[in-house]
C-alpha cells in the first residue's frame, strides 16, 4: 500500500527495530513495524522519526503492517528544533493517538 501520512508515535522495539504509528491521509491510524530502522545502513533512522510527513510504502495483512520505504515530503525541522512547539505538537500527537481505536477513521484529525 502507498499512503501519505505523518508519524504520530515511534517506539523502539528490540535492538534494531521500531514500531511506528502513522496517521494517514484518510484519518486512520496505521501501526507499522520498521525492521532494522535503527541501523545506519538501512537509511530509515531519519525517516522514522516523530512528525515526519511522507509517502509510506508498506505491506499490511492483519494488524500491524511492515514498512518497506518512506519518501519524505517534510521532516518538520523547525518543529523538532523549538522545544515549546515540539512539546505542544507531541501533546497533540499523543492525544490523537490515544483517542483513536484501531479501526477508527477521523479525517479531521489529519487536517
Automatic annotation (TrEMBL):
Record bears the keyword Electron transport: no
Presence of keyword Metal-binding: no
Pfam family, one: RecO_N
GO biological process per UniProt: DNA recombination; double-strand break repair
Boundaries of every DNA replication/recombination mediator RecO N-terminal domain copy: 2-75
Cellular component GO terms held in the UniProt record: bacterial nucleoid
Keywords carried by this UniProt record: DNA damage, DNA recombination, DNA repair
Function: Involved in DNA repair and RecF pathway recombination.
This protein's name: DNA repair protein RecO
Origin species: Escherichia coli
Gene: recO
Amino acid at each position: 500500500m502507498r499512503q501519505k501520512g505523518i508519524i504520530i508515535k515511534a517506539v523502539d522495539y528490540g535492538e534494531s527495530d521500531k514500531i511506528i504509528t502513522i496517521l494517514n491521509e484518510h484519518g486512520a491510524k496505521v501501526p507499522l513495524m520498521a525492521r532494522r530502522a535503527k541501523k545506519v545502513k538501512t537509511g530509515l533512522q531519519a525517516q522514522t522519526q516523530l512528525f515526519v510527513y511522507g509517502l509510506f510504502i508498506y505491506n499490511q495483512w492483519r494488524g500491524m503492517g511492515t514498512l518497506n520505504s518512506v519518501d519524505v515530503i517534510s521532516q518538520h525541522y523547525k518543529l523538532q528544533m523549538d522545544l515549546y512547539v515540539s512539546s505542544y505538537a507531541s501533546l497533540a500527537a499523543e492525544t490523537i493517538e490515544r483517542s483513536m481505536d484501531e479501526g477508527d477513521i477521523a479525517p479531521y484529525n489529519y487536517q
